[in-house]
Structures are given as C-alpha cells and as structure tokens.
Amino acid sequence: MKGSSRCRPGQQTFMEQVRECRDKGYLLSSKKIGSGAFSKVYLAYATQERMRHNPKLSSDLQGKRHAMVAIKIVSMAEAPVEFSQKFLPREISSLNATYKHLNVVQLYETYQNSQRSYLVLELAARGDLLEYINTVSELRGRPGLEEVEARRLFWQLVSAVAHCHSAGIVHRDLKCENILLDDRGLLKLTDFGFANHSGCKNALLSTFCGSVAYTAPEILMSRKYSGQQADLWSLGVILYAMVTGKLPFKERQPHRMLHRMRRGPTFRPGLSPECQDLIHSLLQLCPHARLDLQQVATHPWMLPATHTLFHNVLGGVTPEKTMDSKFPAARELGMDLGPSGPLLQLQRPQRPATRPTSVFGVPKLSEAHLRRGTASAELELCGSHFETADLQ
Ligand SMILES: Nc1ncnc2c1ncn2[C@@H]1O[C@H](COP(=O)(O)OP(=O)(O)OP(=O)(O)O)[C@@H](O)[C@H]1O
C-alpha cells in the first residue's frame, strides 16, 4: 500500500501494535504514559467485547466505571534473551500470583508474537510516588508529605507488601518509582521484574538486586538474605522519603553507605517521635531486629489509619467513596494532580553510563544492566538499579 510505505519505521511499528491490540480487543491510543528499558506503556481502552470475554478485566473495570487500561509493550527484538526468558516471565508470574489486591497493579492478560509481548495492566494514571512527593513538597515549600498523608499511603503499601509476602512473593525492588497512584489516589505497587517466589518463608536468597538507596545492608554486604526482611528495610527507606522528601542514606561509595547505615538516619525537626520510632525499627542493620509486617501494622504511628484500611480494603471501594478521599493534602493545597512537577530533594537515578562494578568495586556485568540494556554501565550508588549474577 502506498500510504503505509510512506510511514516512518516508528509509525509503522506503532500501526502494527495498534492492529495487534485491536485483534485482541483493545484500542491502543497514541498516549505514551511511560517507558522502560525495553518497553513502552500506552493508554488503551478495552472493548465491550473484550470485557465480556475476560472476567478479570470486566470485574475490575466495572468497579472503576471506565474502560481504560495500560498496555505495556515489550520489544522482543530489543530485549536481551535474559530479559525475555527470565525477568519478563518472573514479572508476569508474580503479577498473576498477587492477583487480586487493591494496592497491587492488576495484570488482566498477556499476549505475544515473535516481535512483541503485551501486558494489559490496570491503569495507574497519576504517576509515581516520587513525583507525588516532589510535587507536594514544592507546593508546601517544605520537603516531604504531611504525616497524615504519608500514613494513608504507607498503610496501603504495607497492605500490598503483606499481600505479596502471603502469596510467597518478595518484591526486592521496593522504591518510590515503583509505587504508582491511580486517579482515585490509591497506591498501586508495580514492577515485579526482580520479584522472587520464596515458597518457604525463611528461605535465604543471594541474588544482588534492587536500587542501592533502598537496598538492605545485608544485600550490600553480599550476605545471604531473607527477601521479606530486605523488603522491610526498603519500606523504612520509603517511609523516610515520604515524610522528609529525602533519602535516608545517600552515598556513592558502598563503604560510606554502610557507614551511614550504621549511624542510622537523621530526622528533620518536627517529625513525630512515633514516626521516627517506626522508621528506626525498620532501618535496623540486623534483619531479625526489624519489625515484621504485623508489628508495623500495629505500630502506634500506624493506628490512626486503621479505620481507613478496614474501610478501603475490607469494606470495598467505590468510585464515589474514593473520590472524596483523593489526595486530601494535595487538594487542601489546591494543587493540580496532573502531570508531575519538578523534582526537589528526591531525584530519579540516572541510567548508569559506564562500566558496571559490584558494590565493592569489582567490575561485573550485572543482570540489571542486561535487563536495562546498559551493559557498559557503572553502578551508581545513589538509587541505581542493579542485580548481579545469582551466587547460589
Ligand atoms: N499500570 C501502569 N499505569 C500507568 N503507568 C504505568 C503503568 N505501568 C507502567 N507505567 C509507567 O511506565 C513506566 C515504565 O514502566 P515499566 O514497567 O516498563 O517500567 P520498568 O520495567 O520499571 O522499566 P525499567 O525498569 O526498565 O525502567 C513506569 O515508570 C510508569 O511511569
């Protein structure tokens, strides 16, 4: 056809994707809502026909009263074999295992051909927690969220992580960028590419993965670790980031990072002692000394939110109910919750640009670099993403 031969390669690929989605019952829009190393995420609409045939999709979208989904398209041509054979299947099986929870992004279905894999996901249209913290910080003129707002979000996160752990999944990459918000202000945990099925609660892992700023010290020290306890450390880092707008430990050198971890976090004046205590109790160097999720849920700082949790998780959420509670702090500030605002204290890590090293300086080609296509990258110790070869 004359028309299609005039298309540029990118347009042609997009048109192929539109057709492939339409064949599966989704109308792909040209609105790109995100991109990963080997993937692009687009806004799409489920057709009535598709909803009739997919109970997961119809039950979820009926509650939301819209037909929008996020379709993540992974290019098999661009992705290394390891990504398509290891990380992508891991992400899909973890999302299937964690279905169904209000605070975990839902995977409705997948389809693929030799060129591409498609993941049809629940849409979380309000960006990630990092953007949210920075936007609110800027509007408040002070870094961090109000404690009441942090508590509301942290409750949802704890609930999501508890759900994953009870399904035998450890996330291993909990960080603000992997926590999305939907248009009802609900938190949605995502990015299970590093997740691990730990059938046994006490199974020890040895794969070095995650983002350094959020990574537990036992992993930085290359020790065998419990995935659950490592996730608890990351929760402590995320809570600190929520209430202070900063990362608790930010060092380029691993030994300095560990030194900072040993000294413990410092807090801004005015942060409640209960909140400080909860963060301290999660950021314990000794993994066994960390609170477990049950203890987190009953910690005095968390208690004011108990009612909200029971209301949202156990009482069911309707759009009417949740619209009222959407970003209360942000609303009071009269903020527009649309596209993300500028970054303040919390900064998104840059993709590594030179040769990778292990945290102890030994050059190493990490799986994360393979996963992200940055094989010639240097591990950047302030929030960078990494995974070394499995030591087992
Ligand atoms: N369900 C979703 N709803 C809305 N936006 C999403 C959704 N899933 C992903 N996104 C957006 O797309 C971006 C890329 O998503 P993707 O899952 O490919 O990231 P990723 O795998 O973490 O990428 P990488 O780790 O390579 O950076 C996310 O950062 C987010 O902004």
Would you give an account of this structure?
This protein folds into two domains: 13-121, Phosphorylase Kinase, domain 1 (2-Layer Sandwich); 129-375, Transferase(Phosphotransferase), domain 1 (Orthogonal Bundle), CATH 1.10.510.10. It has helices spanning 2-5, 9-24, 48-53, 55-64, 81-97, 129-140, 147-166, 217-220, 227-244, 254-263, 273-282, 293-297, 306-314, 319-324, 328-332, 367-372, and strands at 26-35, 39-46, 68-75, 107-112, 116-122, 169-170, 179-181, 187-189, 196-197, 204-205, 209-211, 225-226, 385-387. It has a five-stranded antiparallel β-sheet with strand order 1-2-3-5-4, sandwiched between helices. It has a two-stranded antiparallel sheet with strand order 6-9. Strands 7-8 form a two-stranded antiparallel ribbon. Strand 1 and strand 2 (39-46) form a beta hairpin. Helix 7 (147-166) runs antiparallel to helix 9 (227-244). The chain starts with a helix and ends in a 5-residue tail after the last strand. It has 392 residues and is an alpha+beta fold. It is globular. It is built from 16 helices and 13 strands. Helices cover 40% and strands 15% of the residues. The longest helix has 20 residues, at 147-166. Bound molecules: adenosine-5'-triphosphate.
Number of domains: 2
Helix content: 40-55%
What is the CATH C level class of the largest domain, in words? Answer: Mainly Alpha
Summarize the helix and strand pattern as letters. Answer: HHEEHHEHEEHHEEEEEEHEHHHHHHHHE
Anisotropy-based shape: globular
Quantity of strands, as a count: 13
Taking all Cα atoms into account, the compactness measure Rg is 21 Å
Which small compounds were modeled alongside the protein?
A: adenosine-5'-triphosphate
Task: List the uncertain runs.
Answer: 313-345, 351-392
Class of secondary structure makeup: alpha+beta
Let me know the average pLDDT. 80
